[in-house]
Specification:
289 residues; alpha+beta; 2 domains; Rossmann fold
């Protein structure tokens, strides 16, 4: 059975990622692997012959990302609907999702080329904007769906319901519906809890609520989260994983649920989630004077 191609998704804005990509391409080519590169990075490497669109990358046996966690989020939108596993190489700042570093990548690639890999499945969220009874926009994310006011908008009012059951109404600057993977991202900054990435749950976290009673919630992953927006004329935005913003209107209902597919992350057992939290966030560390 012929090997499937190896896909590389490279952060074109990181010089070190572009430089290391040349080494990875050479290593894979020497071993007879077909390599495909995201089309926006290929010209910067002088390898237009390896450029592939999203459909081409989705045919890979696995994807290797060179960048930070944001590069993994980009890859997840390509890979997850097709079940393609992703190995993240940490070349960013925090690296909660990335599993390895450039210094120890190549020994693991040998195993991956032979189909030997351990994969962890991560929940994704799907958000749909319902306007006058019609879906006008939808998108999915590995980290989160974020509803937020635009730069000069007034405070928003959110009417929150779970599976049709009204839960709360409160004014806030926004709301994050996150996966456990996304609990270390925007949801954390908004005061949400840390949740181990394989837990079957969703997080609902208000952003700067103007009330003492609005608290983050952890709910079952199969719950439908419905948010109806009152914007009082101000602009509000919908985004998935911080990608393209979609302009919301007052009266829009945003339905967020677990996506029908998952992101498959290749794990190498280098560090547990808790070890990453301790190292990246100095969790429970005491700074002695």
């Amino acid at each position: 059975m012929p090997r499937r191609p190896v896909g590389l998704i490279i952060n074109r804005d990181k010089l070190e990622a572009l430089q290391f990509a040349q080494e990875v391409i050479a290593w894979l080519t020497e071993r007879g692997a077909e390599v495909r590169i995201n089309a926006d990075a290929a010209p910067l490497l002088g390898r237009d012959d390896l450029a592939a669109d999203e459909a081409g990358l989705a045919q890979a046996g696995f994807l290797v990302t060179l960048g930070g966690d944001g590069t993994i989020l980009t890859a997840s939108h390509i890979a997850a609907p097709h079940g393609v596993p992703i190995l993240g190489v940490h070349m960013g700042h925090f690296g909660f999702i990335a599993e390895t570093h450039p210094d120890d990548l190549f020994p693991h690639l040998d195993d991956l080329l032979e189909g030997r890999m351990r994969v962890e499945e991560r929940t994704m969220v799907h958000g749909a904007v319902i306007r006058s009874g019609r879906t006008v926009y939808e998108s999915a994310g590995l980290n989160d769906i974020v509803l937020t006011k635009a730069a000069r908008a007034r405070m928003l009012v959110f009417h929150l319901a779970f599976s049709g059951d009204p839960v709360a109404t409160y004014p806030a600057d926004g709301m994050v519906v996150a996966t456990p993977t996304g609990s270390t991202a925007y949801a954390l900054s908004a005061g949400g809890p840390l949740v181990e990435p394989t837990v079957e749950a969703l997080l609902v976290v208000p952003i700067c609520p103007h009330t003492l009673s609005a608290r983050p919630l952890v709910i079952p992953a199969d719950e439908l989260v419905s948010v109806t927006l009152d914007s009082d004329g101000g602009e509000a935005l919908f985004s998935a994983d911080g990608a393209r913003d979609f302009l919301l209107q007052s009266g829009d209902r945003i339905d967020v649920r677990q996506a029908d597919y998952r992101t498959r992350i290749i794990t190498l057992g280098h560090a547990s989630f808790y070890a990453k939290v301790r190292k990246r966030l100095l969790w429970a560390e005491r700074l002695n004077q």
